[in-house]
Specification:
- The C terminus is likely disordered.
- Strands 2-1-3 form a three-stranded antiparallel beta sheet.
- It has nine helices and three strands.
- The chain is 48% helix and 9% strand.
- 22% of the residues are buried.
- A hairpin with a 4-residue loop joins strand 1 and strand 2.
- The protein starts with a helix and ends with a helix.
- By secondary structure, it is mainly α.
Length: 207
């Protein structure tokens, strides 16, 4: 609504002084009004991309800490935690990792492009995966099963979170924004891969 935008921009201009800092955030930059992001409106624009592998390791390390009960196979807790994190990162980020490819996009010209785990990874997804693994271990321990977060627990939890994201991939503006595609790349079909499907049955048999 143009009138609402004019009112909002006027309020933004009215609060400018040396004691107020105005911060805006969005995950849909392409839908912002040009008047809002023109030069001079905000002092600086910072774009935060998806975490690369080392950044993802640091985020994992904040949530999967050595003080948690881990299946360590005799390793010190810190080493056990990093080993679990390394396996999860390999599964998601390595080109041939079992969770690395979530889907294949088909464009109107029949060209195809894979959607990888790295393209949808986020700090929130990592935190949710670790929390899911914790809940699974708690449920298993309460039922009399073995305690400790294992590689299978973490990989299954990460697969569940990635599958949830993959299930929301639909042709349209939201997909274009999420994957940073060019506006002229018209996606007509999304084919999900088995890599994004949780392997819960296999892991339940393994514990």
């Amino acid at each position: 609504d143009a009138k609402l935008m004019r009112c909002f921009l006027q309020e933004v201009d009215n609060i400018r002084n040396g004691r107020v800092m105005l911060i805006g955030a969005t995950n849909m930059e392409s839908r912002l009004d040009e008047a809002l992001i023109r030069p001079g409106r905000f002092g600086a624009i910072h774009r935060i991309g998806r975490p690369h592998r080392e950044q993802a390791r640091q985020i994992f390390s904040c949530h999967l800490t050595p003080d948690l009960p881990l299946t360590d196979h005799g390793a010190p807790p810190a080493e056990a935690a990093q080993a679990l994190i390394g396996e999860a990162l390999a599964a998601a980020y390595a080109p041939n990792g079992e969770l690395s490819t979530l889907a294949t996009l088909t464009f109107r010209d029949n060209a195809k492009k894979p959607v990888t785990a790295a393209q949808v990874m986020s700090g929130a997804l990592i935190a949710s995966a670790v929390n899911r693994a914790k809940r699974r271990v708690c449920d298993r321990a309460l039922a009399g099963g073995p305690p400790g977060i294992s590689s299978a627990d973490l990989l299954d939890a990460l697969a569940c979170e990635l599958a949830s994201v993959a299930g929301r991939l639909r042709p349209g503006p939201a997909l274009t924004q999420m994957l940073g595609l060019s506006q002229d790349m018209d996606v007509v079909r999304v084919e999900l891969h088995r890599a994004g499907v949780p392997r819960r049955a296999e892991f339940l048999q393994a514990v």
